[in-house]
Write a structure and sequence with these properties.
The protein is mainly β. The chain has three helices and 18 strands.
């Protein structure tokens, strides 16, 4: 049986239909809206723009969430993503596209997949596998070299307070809320300079803290120190 001209027109239209148009038609949207454009972000994340000028965050062809406006998008090495809304609040999604946070300005996804969430008036820090690293925190930051820092409230666990290296080893106990980290692992905390192993390099002397400029210069030029291997006493 020969195809009618109507059928032929349909097949021709399907053949030349754009990839984006096919993606739009394939979306199973739970929202009463029409998608007019899909903008790729990174990897398999993308934004669907609706006729009402709202945006829908997509992971593959799956809907992650809908927002009025997104001002920034960050993708971590583990596939997690964070969007920043127009009011500055951040929303974090796991690598499957599931929302794991309420919008908040203190939420933060770090490039290595560690992420900080604001919950119950305090911060919690999670690793790239979404395993809890520290809770009841006043401050938590992860640095580009993989080191991280946490500061706790009085009711928090003291084990969570301090500076940690890229293996998770605590190298310094401190509850200061601010740490300046250098690429070589040297850092300034509590007004004193430490090497990448947590050893004090410049500390208080005669009741005075070292000069900031002196610590900055030294931290920038010194090499990363290696941890000494313990010699076996077995004979």
């Amino acid at each position: 049986m020969l195809s009618t001209p109507t059928h032929l027109n349909f097949y021709v239209m399907e053949l030349f239909k754009s990839k984006q148009q096919k993606m739009i038609e394939a979306l199973d949207l739970p929202f009463a809206c029409k998608v007019v454009e899909i903008k790729p972000l990174k990897k398999d994340w993308s934004l669907a723009i609706t006729e009402k000028n709202t945006v829908i965050l997509l992971k593959g062809d799956r809907v992650a969430s809908q927002f009025n406006k997104i001002t920034d998008f960050l993708l971590a090495t583990n596939g997690m993503a964070m969007v920043t809304l127009e009011d500055g609040r951040n929303v974090i999604f796991n690598s499957d596209g599931d929302n794991i946070s309420l919008p908040h300005k203190d939420n933060l996804l770090f490039p290595n997949g560690f992420h900080r969430l604001k919950r119950d008036n305090s911060l919690s820090l999670y690793n790239s596998l979404h395993m809890l690293v520290g809770s009841n925190l006043k401050a938590a930051n992860v640095f580009p070299n993989g080191y991280y820092h946490m500061s706790i409230y009085n009711s928090g666990n003291a084990e969570h307070a301090g500076v940690f290296d890229d293996t998770g080893r605590k190298i310094l106990f401190t509850n200061t809320i601010s740490v300046k980290m250098y690429p070589n692992g040297w850092f300034i905390a509590g007004g004193m300079l430490y090497d990448n192993l947590g050893n004090t390099v410049l500390g208080m002397k005669n009741g005075h803290f070292p000069k900031r400029w002196k610590m900055n210069i030294l931290a920038r030029i010194m090499p990363k120190r290696k941890r000494e291997k313990r010699q076996s006493t077995n004979k």
